[in-house]
Amino acid sequence: MDSKYSSAAEKAVAKLSRDQLLDLGVGADFWRTKAYPEADLPTLTVSDGPSGLRYQKPGTDAKGMVISEPATCFPALATAAATWDSDLVEQMGAAIGREARSMGVGVVLGPGLNIKRSPLCGRNFEYFSEDPLLAGTLATSHVRGVQSTGAGSCVKHFAVNSQEYKRFSNDSLVDERTLREIYLRAFEMVVRDAKPQMVMSAYVMLNGIYCSDNRHLLREILRDEWGFDGVVVTDWGGMHNRAAAYEAGCDLAMPGGGKHLQRQAAAALEAGTLHEERVRESAHRLAALAIAHAGSADAAAVDVAANREVARRVAAEGHVLLANDGTLPLAAGARVALIGQMAEKPRYQGGGSSHINARRVATMRELRPGWTYAAGYDVRTGETNDALVEEAARVARNAEVAVVVVGLPETIESEGYDREDMRLPEGMNRLVAAVAAANPRTVVVLQCGSPVELPWEADVAAVLYAGLGGEAGAEATVDVLEGAVNPSGKLPETWPLHAEDAPCAECWGEPHRQSQYREGVFVGYRYYQTAGVPVAHCFGHGLSYTSFSYDRLAVDAASRTVSFDITNAGQVAGAEVAQVYVAAPEGGLPHPRVQLAGFARVELAPGETRRVSVPLDEKSLSVWDNGWQVVGGTYQVLVGSSVEDVRLRGTLDVAGRGIATPGKYAGTWYRSPKGKPTEADFRVIFGKAIPPEAHHTKGTYDETDSLLEMAETSGTCRFVANQIKGAVERQYDDPTDPQCRMSIASSAGCALFGLVNCSGGAMPDGVAHALLNLANGHAPWHRG
Length: 784
Ligand code: BGC
What we know:
The chain is of the alpha/beta class.
């Protein structure tokens, strides 16, 4: 922290009374911290988010998530991640940072860098990858970009927040090795290398302790080990125990408005269970950040046209060509049928707190008015009918090529809830099958932020994954279809054949109150590759309109650098993302067959050859065994175009520790991962007793249950939940608006303590307590 701000903060904090200090630790409203002009302490404004600003002007809180200022809508981070292009992601960050400054926002709430554990997490579109090195590298670039403009970044959600179901209270049970190697590694990279100004604690519990109160996570790891000296803020409504949170190093509860958290902390100070020094430290960190951003608003910071160009480039590079029989790129002047309402009403961003009031959304239909159009389905649901399918087939039959645009309707993929399966709406699958039957030259464009099943893949000519491309996404799609842009995106996550193939499928999401991270480090391709489970499209996959050849591998053991030649062997310019994987020596702690250790994106003219050098990330050669340990021995080095498309092989001798395989693994799933790990397997790596997972009902409900859950057995809770639902619905012109479903999930569907925290005093904790008593069959005033 800059010493100038630190000493100004010290002076400000010295002028505050004890009550004011406690008050400062809880926000003023949804987006601002408290100001004390008499102590020269300004307010700090924060705003979502990771793919563009969702800035709400003061006084618009009452309209929930409905109103935000127009901003450039960049592609969702899942699509930005498919670029594997750190420089471009940094430019995107810088563009977001400039928009933040133009709106007077001090800190941008993002990026989110949770690991994609299951393809069904409703919020995967907002996260980078299943691989921590890729997620950490790109998040570091994003933060560097934002912070290069003078704005600050808040990385989130720290940590192990890989599902939406019961996100306010789910208990993530994770062993320390898995935590460090998979779920914290990206955070560690970004905190050490980009120094974000803020970190947002996750809603969930980590091993029985809420992340907001988690001393191991926030103090021992984040602050003491990684040296983070910025502000820790809770996720919105996620402050669980104000006193424990102060002790853990959590500085700020957001949003603000209520008083109960201050009362909680004051009582703990009185009782001596909270030390005033902790409160002062937090106040000091927050004051320094607020002072640093005071007066930094700069209305002229934004060049809207330049930002849109960045958005378009990210979208273009983020397109992943999954399959192509040569039909793409489209021949110049081809007669094209454009089918699917998403060509007219595109799905270009995810639902929830990252939702942006985009400036100008391009559509494929408007860009190519000459292509014959058929709607094919209803974009809100993905449903179709005989007439729509017949019309689409007729249009396809009369064209040289049929381009069918399908994807996930916004209600299916959002913050606040998970997907139920990996399928597209049935109507869309029916449409694609009918169009493919009518015209073998059918190209499918997918607009979604996470993997979907492709039951018709063998019957179509090409599949182009456009992701969630932001406001300029359609321009990028047309460019890629026509060959103006040569696709270079690579999948940052595996597309399994079915969601049930994921190793966590049995211990994830509904109906569990706890999430046992049984599969340990075997997440994503680390599992599929080790277990030999076939997938639809592997990690790192993505085709091009040209081809690349690899040659002359050299592995330098001293500098741990891998060098090789890449040649563009085709007729058009293109970019290749070369990936370097390592396979650790046999034995030691159970480990994945391969791990990503580095990558490079190279742009090449036709016929051009470039020598590429990729330094290997040390942690890819290490395990967590009471600290990071480089594992010695001979590694296989695999260089290629995806995790399965390996072109060059070499070896690397690494000096390091030899680790014997601990006997406890004998006969467990981890020795030869196939199928699903059991709770008995998990016990071996967890090393502690697994807490019982109780189903809550009348008599056992607690503050982690929502009004909607308690409504099942309590008429009063049903009434209040309906009142809240009604109030939320009235905020939206259309109650079927996807944002409305998310807002209900985050209010009536949110843990009772979170609802109190988010209510700005409208739901006092005493009332919540009375509702809980009623739900449990007690008198409202019952104590117990
Ligand atoms: C989300 C955060 C977001 C915050 C403020 C929460 O519900 O989980 O990612 O930054 O709301 O909108």
